[in-house]
């Protein structure tokens, strides 16, 4: 690792590739349905004519850009462009609704760049030791991690825990449809071959989040997002001040994102949700998560971009892809004749380090391009008349859902789920618990079944589930995040009593 | 940096072969879509990516890889025969999947529905342990399994898959009882093995190629040793009649004309015969296979009998 590799990464071709990759990735990622995995897979053939390092830089830049791009549609349309941006909708859309969409986009960009840098830094300095995290996580740890993720349902649906749990259960049920991932049983297809493929997560995301927004847009005469009259100055600076104030949140979320990115069985979506959950748990009493709190966006966006660097750690060190896009990149490298694994870092290090510096460059380039594209995206969504916005977004949802696996039945499932989601939202059921169940259900199920088989074979079922240190730590965090709202509520009440006693001011 | 020179030669070469192709035989005169019924990044995708540049080079047309994942491949295979049978749509197929899936339950297609025209490689079954595992040789693993029936856990990719059938068949041959733990794909199964969540892994030679010194293969299910691993014995050498793994090839819709099927079979045979292609595949840990349209019926029948027998005995086909 020396400056030679930095110089290699800084060639004009590589810089151009990084810039192109970030821009292309951001645009693709912002379109719901076109995920980072697809963006990378589509561009793989182009990389055959490049040197391995340039190919890696291009693919890494697209990946990074796509993960950030997912924030635009999450903020402006309440629809995560990629599953990684689910947590961004929680506070991003409320911010956009009240007229702070431009600020939210700027904050998301700062957080993404910060998270991306931390992830890349971990990849540069700590890759070989950190790769052991991937191996320390067994089936039980994945089970408890997904339970921890599911515990977010409780804190997401404050005041309406029962409806949140019902939604989560519905999501878990949906995740069972089709061929079970490890037992190969066919479940809940009701004899229809089209259901064998199950409910596609991205399609379900588009349906559950975007269709209700579209229906509401048509059903109400108001503008899509509130805009302040009289041309406000760009809010880059304001965003930077907010981001700086929340630097601890950014750092914590980035570390969570890096660590979860290393885990091959959990991706950007889980990382974003866990970081969000932690940000919410440690929030100041005056912060209202879920109602447009900038810290919520920052936690998710820092964490999901940190998974890029984190995910490359097992990919490059162990030859095990950390995230789905990494699997595609690994395949592209194999075709190029580059073998990953421990020897890559030691022997053929030049490619790796050139690539890591390339990732840094791409992440830095994301700052100006992200802010620029974000500003443009915001202006477009805000100024475009509803009569054009609704049909074009509707068209995009159909194309995007179809593109996931070239399947028309996915489009039908998306529309049906969207309608169901809209009806449910009328009765106070939110989309997020359903989506959490859908994403985390399979991870929990696999972990449970595998842990059970191993535990039974080794005659130590209890020790398997409750005797492993990492599991115990995750269980402790789960209990903490479940109990925290209760403790916080009690403390707030006590505070209120005291204030009432001393005749203090009302809350702001 | 772009290798401009090779791009240029590629362009010239494709222009030349394009002219030749349109002059002599009209097929193919446009890009061929190659549908992989899995997500990107797996063995099926990677081996298709290996074929891609050779196809373009030899026949002047693009081989466009696309994905139709779902149901462990079943979603794609169930739709194969409703696609255009003009030779411009081909789909990746996998064994034992296309035998076991329809034998287990209604998945929207039968094994006979799949019109396979070429099987181009297989990933031989292999028992993989970590470098510091106490099992130095296959006999160590067998001895441990005999001493502690059922306590020896082995990871593998999925249930009723090549890995799982290999475990069932080997347990029977060796007279042992091991516990098979299904994981989602070879990557997850390898992670579990490397992380010592299980004691060994039913994997493929590709795992050995990817993991290098981090793992040790105890035996491989090939007729002869894999050139990449001259020190790893075959099961046959050790007295077990195990040859096989996950086979991959391509199929076309049923109504594709016979001469088009023959042309496709010949074209992929030509790629398979290319020394550079063979070397790439072997370096990746794959084992080559050359079953064209002519020998397909016989090949499929032999595989089907073998799989159905193992799966029936294990109670997987109820």
UniProtKB/TrEMBL annotation, chain A:
The DUF112 domain sits at 15-436
Q: Which domain of life does the UniProt lineage start with? A: Bacteria
What transmembrane ranges does the database entry give? 12-32, 38-63, 103-127, 133-153, 165-184, 196-219, 255-276, 351-376, 388-405, 411-429, 434-454, 466-487
Q: One Pfam family for this entry, by name?
A: TctA
Carries keyword Isomerase?
no
Recite the UniProt keywords alphabetically. Membrane, Transmembrane, Transmembrane helix
Asked if the keyword Membrane belongs to this entry, the reply reads yes
Q: What is this protein called?
A: C4-dicarboxylate ABC transporter permease
Q: Which species is the source of this protein?
A: Hoeflea alexandrii
TrEMBL record, chain B:
Signal peptide (residue range): 1-26
InterPro entries, per the entry = BUG, Bug_dom1
Alphabetically sorted, this entry's keywords are:
Signal
One Pfam annotation reads TctC
Q: Which family does it belong to?
A: Belongs to the UPF0065 (bug) family.
- PANTHER family, sorted: BLR1237 PROTEIN, TRICARBOXYLATE-BINDING PROTEIN
Q: What is this protein called?
A: Tripartite tricarboxylate transporter substrate binding protein
> Origin organism of this chain?
Hoeflea alexandrii
Highest lineage ranks of the organism?
A: Bacteria, Pseudomonadati, Pseudomonadota, Alphaproteobacteria, Hyphomicrobiales
């Amino acid at each position: 690792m020396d400056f030679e590799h930095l110089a290699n990464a800084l060639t004009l071709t590589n810089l151009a590739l990084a810039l192109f990759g970030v821009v292309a990735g951001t645009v693709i990622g912002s379109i719901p349905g076109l995920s980072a995995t697809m963006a990378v897979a589509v561009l793989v053939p182009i990389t055959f004519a490049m040197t391995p390092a340039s190919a890696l830089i291009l693919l890494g830049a697209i990946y990074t850009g796509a993960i950030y791009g997912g924030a635009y549609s999450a903020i402006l349309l309440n629809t995560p462009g990629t599953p990684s941006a689910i947590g961004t909708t929680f506070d991003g859309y409320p911010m956009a609704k009240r007229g702070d969409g431009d600020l939210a986009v700027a904050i998301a960009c700062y957080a993404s760049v910060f998270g991306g840098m931390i992830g890349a830094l971990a990849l540069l300095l700590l890759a070989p030791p950190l790769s052991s995290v991937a191996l320390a996580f067994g089936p039980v740890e994945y089970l408890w991690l997904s339970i921890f993720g599911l515990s977010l349902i409780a804190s997401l649906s404050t005041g309406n825990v029962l409806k949140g749990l019902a939604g989560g259960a519905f999501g878990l049920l949906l995740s069972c449809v089709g061929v079970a991932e490890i037992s190969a049983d066919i479940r809940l297809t009701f004899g229809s071959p089209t259901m064998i493929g199950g409910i596609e997560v991205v399609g379900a995301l588009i349906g559950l989040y975007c269709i209700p927004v579209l229906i509401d847009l048509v059903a109400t005469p108001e503008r899509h997002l509130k805009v302040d009259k009289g041309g406000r100055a760009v809010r880059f600076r304001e965003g930077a001040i907010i981001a700086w104030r929340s630097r601890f949140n950014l750092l914590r979320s980035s570390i969570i994102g890096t660590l979860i990115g290393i885990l091959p069985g959990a991706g950007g979506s889980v990382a974003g949700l866990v970081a969000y959950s932690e940000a919410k748990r440690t929030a100041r009493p005056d912060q209202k998560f879920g109602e447009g709190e900038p810290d919520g966006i920052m936690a998710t966006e820092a964490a999901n971009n940190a998974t890029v660097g984190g995910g490359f750690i097992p990919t490059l060190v162990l030859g095990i892809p950390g995230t789905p896009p990494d699997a595609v990149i690994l395949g592209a490298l194999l075709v190029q004749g580059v073998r990953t694994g421990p020897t890559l870092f030691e022997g053929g290090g030049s490619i790796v380090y050139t690539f890591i510096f390339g990732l840094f460059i791409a992440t830095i380039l994301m700052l100006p391009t992200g802010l620029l594209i974000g500003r443009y995206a915001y202006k477009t969504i805000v100024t475009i008349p509803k009569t054009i916005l609704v049909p074009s977004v509707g068209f995009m949802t159909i194309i995007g859902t179809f593109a996931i696996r070239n399947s028309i039945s996915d489009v039908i499932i998306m529309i049906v789920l969207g309608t169901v989601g809209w009806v449910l939202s009328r009765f106070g059921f939110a989309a997020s618990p359903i989506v959490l169940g859908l994403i985390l259900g399979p991870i929990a199920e696999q972990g449970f079944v595998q842990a059970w088989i191993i535990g039974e074979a080794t005659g130590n079922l209890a020790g398997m589930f409750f005797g492993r240190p990492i599991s115990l730590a995750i269980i402790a965090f789960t209990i903490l995040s479940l109990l925290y709202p209760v403790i916080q509520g009690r403390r707030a009440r006590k505070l209120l009593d005291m204030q009432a006693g001393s005749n203090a001011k009302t809350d702001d | 940096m772009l290798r401009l020179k090779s791009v240029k030669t590629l362009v010239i070469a494709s222009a030349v072969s394009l002219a030749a192709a349109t002059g002599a035989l009209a097929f193919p005169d446009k890009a061929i879509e190659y549908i992989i019924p899995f997500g990107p990044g797996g063995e099926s995708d990677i081996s298709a990516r290996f074929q891609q540049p050779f196809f373009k080079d030899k026949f002047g047309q693009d081989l466009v890889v696309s994905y139709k994942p779902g149901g462990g491949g079943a979603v794609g295979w169930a739709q194969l025969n409703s696609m255009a049978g003009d030779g411009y749509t081909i789909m990746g197929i996998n064994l034992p999947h296309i035998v076991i899936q329809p034998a287990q339950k209604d998945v929207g297609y039968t094994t006979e529905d799949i019109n396979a025209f070429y099987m181009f490689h297989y990933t031989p079954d292999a028992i993989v342990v970590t470098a510091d595992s106490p099992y130095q040789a296959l006999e160590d693993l067998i001895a441990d399994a005999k001493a502690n029936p059922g306590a020896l856990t082995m990871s593998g990719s999925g249930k009723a898959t090549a890995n799982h059938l290999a475990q069932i068949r080997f347990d029977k041959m060796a007279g042992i009882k091991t516990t098979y733990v299904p994981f989602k794909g070879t990557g997850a199964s390898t992670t579990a093995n490397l992380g010592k969540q299980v004691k060994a892994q039913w994997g493929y030679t590709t795992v050995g190629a990817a993991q290098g010194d981090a793992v040790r293969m105890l035996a491989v299910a090939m007729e002869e040793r894999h050139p990449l691993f001259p020190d790893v014995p075959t099961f046959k050498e050790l007295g077990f009649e195990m040859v096989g793994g996950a086979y991959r090839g391509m199929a076309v819709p049923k109504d594709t004309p016979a001469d088009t099927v023959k042309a496709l079979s010949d074209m992929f045979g030509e790629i398979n015969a290319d020394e550079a292609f063979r070397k790439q595949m072997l370096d990746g840990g794959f084992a080559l296979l050359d079953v064209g349209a002519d020998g397909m019926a016989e090949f499929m029948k032999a595989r089907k009998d073998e799989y159905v027998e193992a799966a029936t005995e294990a109670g997987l086909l109820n």
